[in-house]
Amino acid sequence: MADNKKTSPKRELLLEKQVNGYDRINAEDLEACEEYNEKYKVFIDEGKTERLATEYAVSAAEKAGFREYKRGDSLKQGDKIYRVNRDKAIVLAVIGSEGLDKGVNIAAAHLDAPRLDIKTTPLYEDSELAYFKTHYYGGIKKYQWLAIPLELHGVIALKSGDVIKVSIGKDPSDPVLVISDLLPHLASEQMKKTAAETVAGEKLNALLGSIPEPEDEGSDRVKLYILGILNEKYGITEADLHSAELSLVPAFNARDVGLDRSMVGAYGHDDRVCSFGCLQGILDINNPAKTAVCVLVDKEEIGSEGVTGMQSSFFDTFIDDICQSFNVPLKACFENSFCISSDVAAAYDPSFPEPYDKLNSARLNYGLGIVKYTGSRGKSGASDASAEVVAKIRRILDEADVVWQMAPLGKVDAGGGGTVAKFMANRNIDTIDAGVPVLSMHAPFEIVAKLDNYMSYKGLKAFYLSV
Ligand code: MN
Ligand code: MN
User: Fold this and answer.
1) How many angstroms is it from 395 CA to the middle of ligand 2?
2) Which among 191, 252, 314, 325 has the fewest CB atoms less than 10 Å away?
3) What string of DSSP letters covers 137-192?
């Protein structure tokens, strides 16, 4: 019967059926993929805050021959340079053979991730238990942060100008902190609330200790005992916590996920998975035609604001400094530049299919996700890349044999989001989003597919070298 069916030559016009990346990837790439993901796991475990991730980037850059760039330093083709912004963001560049008036190829990603920040007057005692009050950072489902082990990272800045680094919980011999949850036996009222209301922000208090100070008969002896420990370890008083930047992040490390080990589960894939691709990509290239630029920023999760966010003129200043050393106006460079805003995409989740448009969704193992526009309620807040920009990225990725897919975010009315893309586009730079699809985005333990992670790196590397 089937033999008699007519087949129109018009079938050639149809969108080629996408295949699973595992049905396409060659043996060489498969091996490189494993290696790349092992390296990535080290980074994601070392870089659990933007400061720690920046530290990693600096050390990796220096090992790869990058030097810190100071304004006025002379530059020549092939030079590899970087500059750090207040320990929380970094920009790296490899000087190309073409003039900067031809534009630069920029990959941008963010190093910050949702977490719980410690309040500025955080320490208190209640019912002979001591706590830190927290204020969540970024979009979280608050209930996911209860009853899981947490580690504390950050700095305490003293009036003297000294800055003390804090790290508690990362070393396996360290204690961890935790936020308690109500037992189900007594949770009948709690369980009636909506998921958004189940845990109020003011209940996100991290348990610090329970021993009363033996040398004191006054009030708050448990708090006093904890303060004694902090003083002994860091030389601080309670007032010094006013000028601290301390964050609670999950106290578990990256693990392979699945019986086939095809995925990586970790805290902070958004957006350190793309940050690592951008970073490793620029570390691995030599002598690009266009100057290649990698910028890894802070504060994306709260709107890219502030001196360390993508809206900061820190970035413009760095590019301007380079431009000046070649006597090229910054605006001439920007108008011919191209930027990949590399941020994670939402992977289709078969357990929660409702908010996805299946025809327009990223899938695990289908490669780097291209996102033409983000935004919500009718693309509001999106920079919306032009057709020409999408065509250019299609060409670059296909020429480099990168597995990629179109990856918009969910159904039209389901919600939305944003990235640093619009802040690049606002600078008169052609910009498009492209990143790794993630399951359980913004959860304490997010999931990416190893193949997508590697294809993102491969694509970014090809982009840096493109003309
Ligand atoms: Mn992100
Ligand atoms: Mn995010």
Assistant:
1) 28
2) 191
3) ESS--GGGGSSS-EEEEEEEE-TTS-EEEEEESSSTTS--BEE----GGG-HHHHH
